[in-house]
Each structure stands twice: as structure tokens, then as C-alpha cells.
Amino acid sequence: MTRALRETWVEGWRRVWQAPSLVLLLWTATLVVAAPAAWLLHGALSAHLGDSLMAETAARGVNLAWWHEFLAQASGLGATFTPRIIGMAAVLDNLSRMADAQPLPPALMVVVGAWLLLQVCLMGGIVERLARQQPMGRVMFLWACVRHAGRLGRLALITGAGYWVLFTQVHPWWFGEVYEAAVRDVTAERVAFAWWLAAALMFAVPVLLLGVVADYARVRAVVEDRRSMIGALAAGARFALQARGAVAGLVLAHVLTFAAWLALYALVAPGASAGLWGLGVSQAYVIGRIAVRLSGVAAQVSLFQSRLAHAGYVAHPLPAWPESAAADAILPKV
User: Fold this and answer.
1) Which positions ≥6 away from 220 have C-beta within 8 Å?
2) What is the rounded distance in angstroms from the CA atom of residue 161 to the CA atom of residue 156?
3) In principle, which of 48, 133, 157, 221 could form an S-S bond with 226, CB 3.0–4.6 Å?
4) What is the DSSP letter of 87?
5) In the 3-class helix/strand/coil scheme, how is 209-231 assigned residue by residue?
6) Is the pLDDT of residue 85 over 80?
7) What is the pLDDT of residue 53?
8) For a pLDDT cut of 90, what percent of the chain falls above it?
9) Identity of the highest mean pLDDT range in 179-183, 266-270, 320-324
10) What does the alpha-carbon distance between residue 178 and residue 189 come to, in Å, rounded to a whole number?
11) Do the Cβ atoms of 226 and 232 come closer than 8 Å?
């Protein structure tokens, strides 16, 4: 890692450290989206267990006999209550689904869709706060979220269409016809796995490229106050190409940071009978994952400002607030 790249990576963490409320905001948003689904699942479990003896054994740990019985008649959100949701297994299951392009259960698609929509609504204000490097009042933050929500929503639709093509059209062909032709005459399992790993890495390239272009399109849309998301995507692609060394370095640094946090979580991941301690560890992992993600966004903003603008640059000024001590007291800092 070069000195300039290291400074950009550190700058991303510094900006997140100066705005801890952003981490708290996204964590709260995650809980708000997950709470209704958790409440419905709790109702299904309570109705099935009732006051039986199995309820007591299930509360103390894992009762596989009851679990299999519950899954045999479960539907909707209840069908997602499998052993794969425990600890590190949940993370590995998500990664496996992504690698194999497996669709989410319909019940979870509603939850994930709501979460993505909320992220789009909040991300404009988050990027602007990280770019300005100064506290914004809550009203000004919400104003920034609303002002950018429509634009970033259009950007998300365009990007989503690109991911749809990759995972529903390219992925079946790549891991179907191409991969099967490559391993048709292979007899050793390790060789077949090596071919699959190579295919997965090659497929990850366009996925990462699309994500990088979309990320810098979002940065340019917010920082430069762009209206056209097609133009923002073109500008994001140009910047990623011109600063490809630094952009690739930041992607690698972000992936390694996330991998390190994932490895730490794997060491302390709770089991089924961990209780409140396990809940605390799981939520700490979620908070850390959010912080890692925001540090990546902040580093992208910092890199763009260092190359094409200056630190703290945002094209659209904040609305002027009346010069009054009473007016200042109304707006708590964000």
C-alpha cells in the first residue's frame, strides 16, 4: 500500500470517526426494517411451541427434533428459520447464495427490498455529510436525503438492471455451459474446484467493476449536485479509469478490512445457546460491518475530492439559516 493510498484509507476512517451518528443511523435503520419480520417469526415460534416441554428445551439450547418438526410445517418467514441463521453460518450462507446466484426466499425479498429502499433514501445525506466534514443539523441532513433520494433511486434502478443481467443471464451461462465444458473431462475433485474458483474470480470482475462505477457515480451525483444519473455513471466510469491505480487499491484495502472483521467475528461468533451475550456479539458485528462500509464510502469521497476538487467540497451550498442564537439551538448537530 502506497503512502497516498494509506492516507486515503485512514482519511475514510477519520471521517467516519468524526460522524459516529451515521453508524448509529444505519444500525437503527437495520433494526427498524428487521423488527417486523422478527416479530412475525416470534409469533410463529410461540404458536408452535406453546407451553410444551419442547419450549423449555428450545429455550435452553438447540432441540433438533422440534426444529425439524417446525420446519416441516413452516411457510413464509418461518421457513427461513434454519440452522444456517446461527452465528458465522449466516454470513457463509449469504456469501454462498451470492456466489451461486440463488434467489432469496420470497418472504425475505420483502425485507431486503425495504432495507435497500431505506438505504437509497439515506445515502444522499450520508455522502454529503462525509463530503462536507462538518456537522449538519438534523433538518439539513434530512433535507439532503430528500433532495438526493430521487436521483439515487434512478441510479439504483440502472445499477440493479446491470446486476440483474449479470446474475440472471451471464451467471447461468458462465457457470453452466462454459464451466461444464471446462470440467467435462476432469476426474479429480480438487481440479474441478480450482476451475470453479477461477470461474468465480473471473465473474467477480464485472460485478466489482459495476459496483465501483456505481459508487463513484453516487459520489459525483451528490458532491457535484448532478441531475442526470446517466451522466453520473459516465463520470464515475471516467474517474475510475483515470485513477484506476488508487481506485483498485482502495477496493483491495476495503475487501481486506472486511475480511479481517469477518475473521474476527468467526472467532467469537455465538452459538444457538449464547443468550444475550450472543445477541450483543452479533450486533457488534453488524455495527462494525456498517462502519467498514461507511469508511469505504468516505475514502471514495476523499479520493474524488483530492483529485478533482478539495477537501470539504460540495457543489450545492447548505441553505442559509437565520443568524440567531435561538435558531442555532433548535438544530442539534448530526
Assistant:
1) 226, 232, 235, 236, 239, 304
2) 8
3) 221
4) T
5) HHHHHHHHHHHHHHHCCCCCHHH
6) no
7) 57
8) 49
9) 179-183
10) 17
11) yes
